[in-house]
Design brief:
Blueprint lengths: L7 H18 L1 H25 L2 E4 L5 E5 L9 E5 L3 H10 L9 E4 L3 H4 L10 E6 L5 E5 L18 E4 L2 E4 L3 H4 L2 H17 L4 H5 L2 E4 L5 E4 L1 H12 L3 H16 L1 H7 L4 H29 L8 H25 L3 H24 L4 H7 L3 H17 L1 H5 L8 H27 L16 H4 L35 E14 L2 E14 L2 E6 L6 H9 L6 E6 L2 E2 L3 H8 L2 E4 L11 H11 L4 H14 L15 H13 L5 E5 L7 H13 L5 E5 L3 H7 L2 E6 L2 E6 L1 H8 L3 E7 L5 H11 L4 E5 L3 E6 L7 H10 L5 E8 L2 H16 L1
Parallel strand pairs: 3-4, 3-5, 13-18, 13-19, 16-17, 17-18
Antiparallel strand pairs: 1-10, 2-9, 5-6, 7-8, 11-12, 11-14, 14-15, 19-20, 21-23, 21-24, 22-23
């Protein structure tokens, strides 16, 4: 047995090379993947030049805006509601303000009727809605006196340089009279309450537009579309990694895990490959964003890091979905929809106020975080406060915080992936309890001193059962695999189905043991449990005193085992040699011994002539031979073979038999087969399973003695022979002989095994009777097929 070292680095690089070969040989899929990625990048490149604009706003010095009453606009009417004595008195005083003199002031019974003024588009109405004497609301037609967007949530610049004029939306409050109307109403209320006029004082207040540093103005809606395409820029890669990982997880990952694959190596191999893809696209996207001046003041490195961290988070999100969803296409579709939906959710936070706790919860969604991060970078360009004050709500430190949140999202998705990969049910592999990480055994490896029997184990001695042939003394103490009260039940729509019903027997080192039984008897289920692909409902199994019920023991057991499952384990896009090399590295064979092991497998199984053929182009027998060769890599101590020669030609079958015989010494070989001649000539012990229960375990000879019918005597007759005299002759020598079949020209008798000493005399008398109508006769021992049919018939009777 070769020395093995389960090295994560060796396994990761082996799987990474496998992934590279897959991309290289499946060129159509790879080209489509890159085509759609570059198509999105190209669209992002062309988009700014057509719809997006960027204007630099130079530094604005302090500007004197004049007095409040310098507002001079007479094309409006003033309406107020509800009309009351106090309201009318207030509004009469408002009408005395210098800038209002001459304007129409009218009262309305209620606010709803006052709002009908909005239906008359020829009237610019300034509406005052009183709630009480001291409280009121100013209402204007949309965009006439105030700007349309909420300043604190809009990532467009507040000021825009157009030709040689600087326009700031915030100045609309001053220039369109909002401040003047507010000051006049406040002066009127103060005068009525205090009987002291402050109208002239408030009207003489001077407005100043504060100094502003240079900023960048950008197109708001067009920028939003640009951000959206940045959000989906990695979607082609993320869809493909979702599909690929989901496909491999369904079967191949479980099989490789049973061969010794570390789960971290599987995730790393796909993560590193697509991280390289993300690195390329992130670089292109950062260059485009800087080249198109979408983001001006922030450096290339910051933009690149934002895209890179976002892409990495999407890879781990794809990993998480591949664990939660079993269908590859559905996994890719769900991931894409989540990216789109969560990214759009980010725009909601830009334009509406959402509760702080909800916003922090949304930060756990990486597309949402990326959207906010892009908006932060845009605000650094357009928000003068961000450039002037470190305590601004948009200062550069928030962008760094976004980076850390994306890293947290990546770590969170990866942690959830590893957790759900261990606890969610699947068709293969062992599932851990939800709180497995709270157990001490998960964090600390402990040395097991002895095996403690489970409560549902039944101690019994198989040798004491009549269904078992006693083991010869030389094998006493060589019990390598011990099976005790092993049960396995599956839950189906119509209830539970029992696949194994309390198996109890031992498998010995130095012997080849064959599992026999009809299809569905439980042979594959038993082999899956022994290999760790399935977990028993109850009972226990130990392999060289290592209990399979303890996950901590599995790594030790996998180093001992070679597994040939019922379905072939190989990658169709790899050649025979490449498959052998990959699985040799997965099994932990030392790097310097890998090529030697591969050559040995090719030579022993006579596969040198097909070593450079892709596995997907092999015949069924050749594929089976490759799977068997993978199981033999590393010369394992324990071989578990599920119909290893199925589909092979006769020459290949005998080659496999010879290899198993050569390795029988000091090894444990357990195989299932549908071929009785294979079991008869190859296996030292046969275990017959029917409907999940063990009916017999022993050698061929003992099996035939107990369940066989001895020897078959076939006598061919002609019309001259008297059947009764023939039967009398046979019984004269062997009284307990039985006639089992007869026809016009053939009689078949069963002769007990213990009467072989009577055969010579019987044959002499038959020879003398050749002139009495006996043309010829022959003797054959009962075949294993006949024993199988008899045992199967008994099992059917027992079940009924």
């Amino acid at each position: 047995m070769s020395k093995r070292c389960m090295n994560v680095s060796q396994q990761t690089w082996a799987l990474l090379y496998k992934n590279y070969l897959k991309k290289w040989r499946m060129k159509a899929q790879t080209l489509l993947e890159w085509f759609f990625s570059f198509l999105l990048v190209l669209f992002v490149y062309l988009f700014p030049s057509t719809l997006h604009y960027v204007r630099d706003s130079p530094q604005m010095l302090i500007t004197d805006l004049g007095h409040v009453d310098t507002f001079n606009d007479s094309n409006y009417v003033i309406a107020f509601a509800p009309e009351s004595k106090m309201a009318r008195e207030i509004m009469d005083k408002v009408a005395s303000a210098p800038f209002i003199k001459g304007s129409t002031v009218m009262g309305w019974p209620d606010e709803k009727s006052m709002d009908t003024l909005d239906l008359n588009y020829s009237i610019d109405a300034v509406k005052v809605a009183f709630t009480d004497t001291l409280s009121y609301r100013l209402k204007f037609s949309w965009r006439h006196r105030i700007h349309k967007m909420k300043e604190h949530k809009n990532h467009s610049a507040r000021c825009d340089a157009f030709e040689e004029t600087i326009m700031c939306e915030d100045l609309m409050f001053w220039e369109k009279g909002f401040v003047a109307f507010q000051a006049a109403i406040n002066a009127a209320v103060i005068e009525i309450k205090t009987n002291h006029s402050v109208m002239e004082e408030l009207m003489s207040i001077t407005g100043i537009n504060m100094k502003m540093l240079p900023s960048v103005a950008q197109g708001g809606l067009a920028t939003d579309f640009f951000i959206f395409f940045c959000i989906i820029s990695f979607s082609a890669f993320i869809y493909n990694v979702s599909v690929n990982v989901t496909q491999e997880r369904q079967y191949m990952k479980s099989m490789m895990t049973m061969m010794g694959l570390r789960e971290s190596a599987f995730w790393l191999s796909w993560g590193l490959m697509y991280a390289g893809y993300i690195l390329i696209v992130a670089t292109l996207m950062a260059l485009i964003v800087k080249y198109a001046h979408v983001i001006v003041l922030t450096g290339f490195v910051m933009v690149f890091i934002l895209f890179l961290l976002y892409g990495l988070s999407l890879i781990t999100l794809a990993f998480l979905m591949s664990v939660l969803i079993k269908k590859p296409f559905l996994t890719g579709l769900v991931v894409f929809l989540l990216i789109v939906f969560w990214g759009i959710l980010g725009f909601t936070a830009l334009y509406t106020n959402i509760p702080v706790f909800l916003e922090w919860a949304f930060f756990l969604l990486s597309p949402f975080t990326f959207t906010i991060g892009m908006a932060q970078l845009l605000r650094l360009d357009s928000d003068v406060d961000a450039n002037a004050h470190s305590n601004s709500s948009h200062n550069p430190h928030l962008v760094i915080a976004t980076f850390f949140i994306l890293m947290l999202d990546t770590l969170l998705y990866l942690t959830l992936t590893l957790y759900f990969d261990k606890v969610l049910p699947s068709d293969y592999g062992r599932r851990r309890p939800p709180l497995f990480f709270l157990k001490k055994s998960f964090w600390f490896q402990h040395q097991r001193t002895h095996h403690v029997a489970l409560e549902n184990e039944i101690e019994s001695d198989p040798a004491s059962d009549d269904s078992f042939e006693p083991v010869s003394p030389e094998f006493r103490g060589k019990e390598a695999i011990r099976i005790k009260n092993l049960k396995k039940e599956y839950t189906r729509k119509h209830g539970k189905v029992e696949a194994l019903g309390g198996l109890v027997f031992d498998i010995y080192e130095g012997q080849i043991t064959a599992l026999l039984g009809h299809s569905g008897a439980g042979k594959t289920t038993l082999l899956n449990i022994l290999s760790g692909l399935s977990v028993p409902t109850s009972g226990s199994v130990t392999i060289y005193n290592h209990p399979l019920s303890e996950v901590a023991e599995l790594e030790t057991v996998t180093k001992l085992m070679g597994i040939c499952p019922q379905s072939n384990v190989q990658f169709g896009f790899l050649t025979v040699r490449e498959n052998l090399r990959l699985f040799a590295k997965v099994k932990g064979i030392l790097p310097q011994e890998v090529e030697q092991e591969v050559r040995r497998a090719l030579q022993e199984l006579k596969m040198e002539n097909i070593q450079d053929i892709l596995a997907q182009n092999l015949s069924g027998g050749q594929s089976r031979k490759l799977t068997f060769g993978i199981a033999m890599l590393g010369d394992p101590q324990v071989l578990l073979l599920d119909e290893p020669t199925a589909g092979m030609d006769l020459l290949s079958q005998h080659r496999v038999w010879d290899l198993l015989r050569e390795r029988r010494s000091d090894r444990v070989i357990l195989l299932s087969t549908q071929f009785m001649d294979e079991a008869d000539s190859l296996a030292d012990r046969k275990a017959f399973i029917s409907n999940g229960r063990l009916k017999y375990a022993g050698s061929s000879l003992d099996l035939k003695k107990k369940w066989g019918i001895g020897y078959n005597l076939s006598v061919h007759l002609n019309e001259m022979c008297d059947p009764e005299s023939l039967t009398s002759l046979v019984k004269q020598h062997i009284p307990d002989a039985k006639l089992t079949a007869q026809s016009e020209n053939k009689f078949v008798y069963i002769l007990p095994l213990e009467r072989t000493n009577k055969f010579p005399d019987l044959f002499k008398d038959l020879d003398r009777c050749s002139n009495r109508g006996i043309e010829n006769y022959g003797v054959s021992i009962t075949t294993l097929n006949e024993v199988f049919l008899k045992l199967e018939g008994k099992s059917t009777v027992d079940e009924s």
